[in-house]
Amino acid sequence: MKKRHLICIMLISFIISGCGVIKKSVPYKMSINQLESCEIAKEAIGDIKSFGWFPTGNISTNNDTGTASFAIKVKGSKKHAMLKTELTKEAGKWKFTS
Q: Looking at the predicted structure, is the pLDDT value of residue 6 above 70?
């Protein structure tokens, strides 16, 4: 039984640390900033109240190139939504592809 508890604790720690890495990344922050400055999104979901605790997606980089994609839950004052973004990194700079 103690072995199962240790495995569960390790798994939870891994998940939480992975989410922390994603949330601190430049492309994740760009995605959040893009949504917060979008008037069309504000009209649709209302004022943004919070973002989901566990964003899904991935980030892959190789020197000055890379890709990132995210699905982020958004809680608005009117309704909830899912923000989906894709970015590429070229010459060290991230840009949106969708």
A: no
